[in-house]
Write a structure and sequence with these properties.
This protein is α+β, with helices and mostly antiparallel strands and 312 residues long. The protein folds into 3 domains: 5-79, Phosphatidylinositol 3-kinase Catalytic Subunit, Chain A, domain 1 (Ubiquitin-like (UB roll)), CATH 3.10.20.90; 83-269, Cathepsin B, Chain A (Alpha-Beta Complex); 280-310, no CATH class. The protein contains 8 helices and 17 strands. The strands form 4 sheets. Strands 8, 9, 10, 11, 12 and 14 form a 6-stranded mixed sheet that branches. A 5-stranded mixed sheet has the order 2-1-5-3-4, covered by helices on one side. Strands 6-7-13 form a 3-stranded mixed sheet, with no helix packed on it. A hairpin with a 4-residue loop joins strand 9 and strand 10. It is globular. The N and C termini lie far apart (72 Å).
Length: 312
């Protein structure tokens, strides 16, 4: 069929797959995408639609037509990692062990414990944390891709993303969020929740609550982050038995949600938070005293130090 083409989006940019027909197979599509992106076929994670949903391409001899893939469609291509390797080993409580298979869905039948996966403090910790719960890999290169997603979604919906919501004119916001030193928060979480079609539950250690972005959309899956007032990290489930870790859960899984609620309470009671609005702070890395949110954020940008404590 002449003119058959499929657009694909990756964190590196946009590409076009040509030379296929509706009667070509899923295997043919995977080979083309793998060749264009340098992602191994076994690691391809392909999404389509809006909000994007994973495509079931396990039957490799199925035709593109039978899978509802048409010329002009846009597919989102990510690299799915099965082995989680900690780039920043700390201790057994902070890092997922090396060589672990990463579970994308609620396959785990054994109980486990929610644990923190520390990500780099580089002004993009929110995006890196979301990348980890999606792929099982700490990859700071995800951030520009997610910033571009947010800018495009906001620019295409100026009615819902007005100056009153964004705190600045829509075009100005879109320019701002693309900068690598712009911090993400509630607006960005809401956009990414909608884009990926899943609920993002954020454990707020300052207020001992869980903020659930996308809760009203009744998504089938949920991921967890933790926020201490300055920095975001990802949460994953460490099993009591077996070697697999889990970052993505069914929204019907009340057990893991209860664990997250208990974690929020424990973190607040042990003061694992930074109340930037009401306390004098001290950088626990260099011991510098700081006052208020503006000074703390500026200090973090200048030095990369992200560990703050309250000064009585």
């Amino acid at each position: 069929m002449a003119g058959f083409a499929i657009k694909i989006k990756t964190k590196s940019g946009q590409l076009v797959v040509k030379g296929l027909t509706p009667r070509d197979s899923v295997s043919d599509l995977k080979q083309k995408i793998s060749s264009l992106t340098n992602i191994k076929e076994g690691c391809l994670h392909i999404l389509s639609g809006y909000p994007p949903k994973p495509l079931d391409l396990s039957v490799t001899n199925a035709t593109l037509e039978s899978k509802g893939i048409s010329s002009g469609d846009t597919l989102i291509v990510e690299e799915k990692q099965y082995n989680v390797v900690s780039e920043q080993p700390t201790n057994v409580q902070d890092s997922a062990p090396k060589g672990r298979r990463h579970i994308m869905e609620s396959e785990m039948g054994h109980p486990g414990i929610l644990m923190r996966k520390i990500v780099p403090a580089d002004n993009s910790c929110l995006f890196t944390s979301i990348g980890f719960v999606l792929s099982g890999k700490v990859d700071v290169e995800n951030s520009p891709f997610m910033r571009q997603i947010i800018a495009e979604c906001v620019a295409n919906d100026p009615d819902n993303y007005s100056e009153a919501i964004l705190g600045k004119p829509n075009p100005e916001y879109c320019h701002w969020i693309l900068k690598p030193d712009s911090w993400g928060g509630a607006i960005e979480l809401a956009v990414l929740s909608n884009f990926y079609g899943l609920e993002i539950a954020v454990v707020d250690t300052l207020n001992a609550i869980i903020n659930r972005f996308g809760e009203d959309q009744h998504y089938a899956q949920r991921v967890f982050l933790i926020f201490d007032g300055v920095h975001y990290d990802a949460l994953y489930l460490e099993p009591l038995e077996g070697d697999n870790i889990q970052t993505m859960f069914l929204t019907s899984d009340e057990n893991v949600l209860q664990q997250a609620e208990e974690l929020a309470q424990e973190a607040k009671s042990s003061k694992q938070y930074t109340d930037l609005g009401h306390f004098t702070l001290k950088c626990l890395v260099c011991q510098k005293l700081l006052t208020g949110q503006v000074q703390a954020q500026q200090h973090a940008r200048d030095t990369g130090h992200m560990n703050f404590g309250e000064v009585a």
